[in-house]
Model the fold of this input.
Amino acid sequence: MNKNINIALVGLGQIGIYLYDQLQKKRKDIEIKTGKKINIVAISAKNINKKRRFKIDKKIFFKNPLDIIKKKNIDVLFEIIGQSDGISKRLVEEALSKKINVITPNKALIAKHGDYLGSIAEKKRVNLEFEAAVAGGIPVLRTIKEGLATNKIQKVYGILNGTSNYILSEMMSSKKSFKDVLIKAQKLGYAEPGNPKLDLNGYDALSKIKILSSLSFNKKISKKNSLMEGIEKIELKDIEIANQLNCRIKLIGISELINGNLFERVHPCLINKDNYIANVNGVMNAVIIEGNPIGESILQGEGAGPGPTSSALMSDLLSILRGNVKYPFGISRLKRSNPKIYNYDKYLNSLYLRFEVKDKPGVLAFITKKLANKNISVERLIQKPNYKNKTASIIIITHESKEKDVKICLKNITQNKNILKSPVLIRLL
Done:
């Protein structure tokens, strides 16, 4: 690689602007640490005239980012558009094919097309780096690929979405409803103002889990459906009841091998307050890696935002500038196998179940009988009557039960006219 490095930056949202600023400010630092001089020779964004902290030199601006590859000699391209398909995929694909190193924080793109794009990078002997795609400011991918490379990882899990974690934490501390806290999160910029669905329904965290799975277990990225549930059904009363049980509710992404089968899942968990991860609050992320011989390794930090994301993008840049051509997923694509997928219907777990019911004789007996018919036994039961509305909340903590049996049982229970709404189900961690 030449001493002078030409860089292209595609996407000037919050992250792109922050990264541009960092690239300008850290030129001397980068040269000291790598011996390379960086030059930003191409920029692409939707609108050149949009008000920004800096003016874009029209000589290096490209409305169509694909023209950059055709017209400029580029060494490193930052893709910060954020789409899983469309222009993001095409841009990265063409850049790698032209032997251009690519750095991206785009977890949706990597989770969906990482194997394909990684294979191009391998064949062309260039880097595809995506440290910023998972847990922003936490160097978890590099930790797995390099720091824990000789460990046999058995399980990786954690809080991977800062928006959801902020909402659950704020509901707990402020005693405000999900709706009210979501509005606050949007005002603060933690949640998308228009459609925060991908953060709230678990999709964002699942994309990250798929990437972590591939790196941890040397598997190709799973294309099969995974167990995915978000936090939209969590109400303030669930937060309050969890507190009474000496627990907290967190959205957790989990990946592990069970008898050689890959089990990926994202869902809310009821976690004892003594557990480390129960005390990770606000927009913070935390990843726990269990392996041999390392045991348990915990990484925590800010998972999103311009600062942490830019830090990860810059670390990828320095890695490339130091001359290391690496396998995108730690080992050659030829040595990564297709995962065998665990049948999550067989998943055994203890559960928190909340039923909203008419406060009438026989309703509780009906629920417990239906549970017993599916061999779901009750460990703890709480009743909270609402005398004014003649309704009640029935909270049941179960012993370990099979996922398939629980789903069938809840479907049958919900059909009863005395059950006012679909039950809330939260798995215990």
Residues 146-302+337-342 form a domain with the Dihydrodipicolinate Reductase; domain 2 fold (CATH 3.30.360.10). DSSP finds 14 helices and 17 strands in the chain. The two ends are 48 Å apart (CA to CA).
